[in-house]
């Protein structure tokens, strides 16, 4: 008798599970409105902006970092109604001008970090893994969101770049060969147009940036400045101009064949 009861209970469980399966699939396939603040190649960049949004919008629900393929995306909100997350958009755009409201699938398996009120519960303890970010010194404060969509610089801007940029002479090319310098890495983009915009913003500073340039490094357009001989010289330059310029100090080889745009060739070292 007990064996028959056990079989009946197991059959009932399977029937209930079968009936609930469409609901589970529907939830997994449901699209929600969410705000995308930015997409990044480096996890540290995503974490830096995630922390910034935590501080500036403490009441934001479903603030999270999702890993999709090789990229990290910072998103805010999860609502079936557009109005549920739209109210946060102006606040996000104060920090990230390219932030946009989209309808996406909500996939918890992709979430590597999350905070904010989630249906009355703290998501940080439920979903967030152990925080692996020991320091954010490598973050590029001036970098905007890295977009993995490559855009070619418009023709009229290419003409402008050609008229305003300078070239490296053969003699200087020979002097640079094989010699390591220190530069300030300011931003990195997969989009050439964005790199050009960042250059224009930096050229608007009250002081000239020596060796301000865009370099093509693999698939990315990297904005760098300076050709210093020592790390101390870079620190002195950055300290002199205070908050006007921030970035990561890097030891680099200046390779003319990689340079897409070059401005202000001054002896900074």
Topology:
Layout: H1 2-29, E1 31-40, H2 43-56, E2 63-68, E3 71-79, H3 83-86, H4 89-95, E4 100-105, E5 111-115, E6 117-118, E7 121-122, H5 123-127, H6 155-164, H7 170-176, E8 180-189, H8 192-203, E9 212-217, E10 220-228, H9 231-240, E11 248-253, E12 259-263
Antiparallel strand pairs: 1-3, 1-4, 2-3, 2-5, 6-7, 8-10, 8-11, 9-10, 9-12
Describe this structure in words.
The protein has 269 residues and is an alpha+beta fold. The protein folds into 2 domains: 28-127, Sporulation related repeat (Alpha-Beta Plaits); 155-263, Sporulation related repeat (Alpha-Beta Plaits, 2-Layer Sandwich), CATH 3.30.70. 36% of the residues lie in helices and 28% in strands. It contains 9 helices and 12 strands. The strands form 3 sheets. It has a 5-stranded antiparallel beta sheet with strand order 4-1-3-2-5. A 5-stranded antiparallel beta sheet has the order 11-8-10-9-12. Strand 9 (212-217) and strand 10 (220-228) form a beta hairpin. The radius of gyration is 25 Å and the shape is elongated.
CATH class of the largest domain: Alpha Beta
Give the helices and strands as they follow along the chain: HEHEEHHEEEEHHHEHEEHEE
Q: DSSP helix count?
A: 9
Quaternary state of the chains: single chain
Which fold does the CATH topology of the largest domain refer to?
A: Alpha-Beta Plaits
Question: Architecture of the largest domain, CATH level 2?
Answer: 2-Layer Sandwich
Overall number of structural domains? 2
* Integer-rounded radius of gyration: 25 Å
At the fourth level of CATH, the homologous superfamily of the largest domain is Sporulation related repeat
End-to-end gap: 90 Å
Structural class: alpha+beta
Helix content: 25-40%
